[in-house]
Sequence to fold (663 residues):
Amino acid sequence: MNINEAKKRADELKVILEKANHDYYDLDAPKLEDDEYDALMRELRSIEGEFPELLTADSPSQRVGGSAQSTFNKVRHEVQMGSLQDVFDVEQVRAFVERVSGEGAKEFTVEPKIDGLSVSLEYHDGVLAIGSTRGDGFIGEDITPNLKTIRSIPLSLPEKLPLLEVRGEVYMPRKSFAELYEQSEKNGEPLPKNPRNAAAGSLRQKDSKITAQRKLDIFCFNIQRAEGKEFSTHSESLEFIEKMGFHIIPDVKICHTADEILQRIDEIGQLRHSLPFDIDGAVIKVNDLALRNEIGATAKVPKWAVAFKYPPEEKETLLRDIEINVGRTGALTPVAVFDPVELAGTTVSRAVLHNQDYIAEKDIRVGDIIVVRKAGDIIPEVVKSAKHAENSEPFFIPDVCPVCGAKALRDEDEAVIRCQNIECPAQLLRSLEHFASRGAMNIDGLGEAVVEQLVNANLVHNPADLYTLNTQDLTALERFGQKSAENLISAIENSKKNEPDRLIFALGIRGIGQRAATLLCKKFGSVEAIMNASTEDISSIDGIGEVLAKSVYTAMREPHMLSLIERLKELGLNMKYSEQKVSDVFAGLTFVLTGTLPTLKRDEAKKIIEQRGGKCSGSVSKKTSYVLAGEEAGSKLDKANELGIPLLTEEEFLKMANKEGEA
Fold:
């Protein structure tokens, strides 16, 4: 390769990598796979190494990707938040150890590399003052309110140093990611790609309440700055921040030789699929902090550390078919059906292909040899097509619904294709299941199997038909006796008394969850007022933005929705919202509920608390006022005892509630 060819290729690579950085860091929507990005970066560095005159200060190889978002205030990092030099094989690890050993390094730490979003936590006199993203390493984004929703981040420290800046990695646990994925799938929303992207997107929410719902966590792994305290080793600094209440990077081991380091890398690699969080490598650091300063850093990376990157576990298999599933919002979701393969300890044979853009971008065709893996070691995904079958043709999601044959159109503002028939059987089944679910109308006994029976028997065509059923209708169905029929009819009848925020959620308006439904009802007071509200009125609610406001406004003007609400009103469902405040006896108090109470259901106890001005929390902390404990109370009870939080029995709780008003 001559200088002209090298310059042309380097310029191409810079454009590709800068675009990839923007997609990954700023949009949280990467187009390149990690290994593809790494390969391109290695190629660019190789060219710049061979032709030093092509190395420029603005090369992607010389700086951290990402930039501060205009939606957040900018924060200048006093200590650069650099990235790490990646290594990919045994020889590169040995070369690193040999180099820094030659400069005096005798002790190393080896730790898992958490796959998340790097942040800085700055404490002034022991109080969290600023939390920010890495950004470009020098300027990041102030996301303090969102970081404060992460319960494992201490808001104040036991030792009040004048200044302490800690660096950590925010991540989404695999369990939280699986829950978010399942909920997004149910609601017909775009599916999160992997835990890292989901964590990054959650941290950049304008509404910190949404961030709080995502159940993020953090591991801290470095002290950036400290005043009033000195440390001689990295391991010593980790011990200190752990005493300050931080979750430190887990299972850090001290090693002395390249062989010990490589053994530890292998041990972490074998554990990676069993961990409750994602890792994408192992980090090797010189332990001596003074020596680190002597070894120094390049413009982008420290010379005293490297990150060993594990190759993703990927398997090739034959794509047999692409099925189209229809969700309750009418979304047509393509699903790859392939020969079973073993990934991350389980056998998988299906993976969601998201939408037409995803299929077209990867040019996935039936009959292809495809490469599959598990996102976050949880959700199977198709990485790419490795080889097309002979005479294969590009795949297109049909423009008719595979269930009812009605027209299917692409949403104007989304990549989703939806069935336009509101009475489509596939939509009906899922809509009815959602309508009756616990968070919605909470109709006990109306599960998936019963809903399917009712639809197949032609007894129910929309949610309003549920309220016209009688015991004779039900006893005519298989597995329904007189008692079970009476119980279900009673549960349906009782649901009429629900507050209308449950009904608003049950209607399945796109993007409107339980919390948004409650906000709407608190603002407008009735279903009728919500129906008449403008987008401006709706978007003025704290916690509901323009997109959700438009979704509500549009839904409340669709003929089928108007007809359904009118019929539900005629059938006697409650359409007026009342918070039913009883007293202020619990004002300023925070309760945590745990275990099974003798007579009260958890929702009932929560309602009693909120009607009396109190709040409910999902976890025990120093701010918890009381823990209401029933039988089989678990770790929350242990935590309450540890912190000295007062415990209440149901009887004691009801006595407190009845000091003013009635329970």
